[in-house]
Please model this.
Amino acid sequence: MIDPISWSYSWPYIAVALACGYLLGSVPFGLLLTRFAGLGDIRGIGSGNIGATNVLRTGRKSLAAATLLLDAGKGALTVMLGDLYGPDIAIVAGLGAMLGHLFPVWLRFHGGRGVATALGVILALSWQAGLAALMVWIAVAALFRYSSLAALVAAAAAPVIAWFIATQQLAEFFALIAVLVWMRHAGNIRRLIRGEESRIGAK
Model:
């Protein structure tokens, strides 16, 4: 690893890490894959989201799986590249990836919900916390059949898990990720409260 960069004198590195993370995170894989597959604009069906859950509504499970892996992968990749310059820069790069996915300039700042990208970021920073959060998602999704509810609970659980098995710094960063995920799920939360949210597997 290159000599670690500390917060005290690394503002140029922080700016570069944030910008590079944003650019990589802003690649809309769900939109690109569905267009290449001849399915048109994914934003015109279902929830209008560009993530794996909405891609699944096309009936193409392989495309949904690829979207999930690529969205998670771009989050993990930004963290791993940032980690070459130290753990602080890795966190900044991960934040950039999240912001890029949620607010991509190419799509007029209207991106995905950030769940898969958040998972990739968390796994790359602490695989134990990431794996535990993934288990929470699977349990809630299997029990209630709501992808959005599973994402909300898993996002909220991640900082709590990190507090006990990782570091305070990561717990605080995961709490910020949870806030971003919850903000982008505002519409889903309203539909859950009204009982109108689509269940996993619904067309």
Observations:
- The chain has one domain: 7-194.
- The CA atoms of residues 93 and 154 lie 22 Å apart.
- The two ends are 47 Å apart (CA to CA).
- Residues 7-194 form one domain.
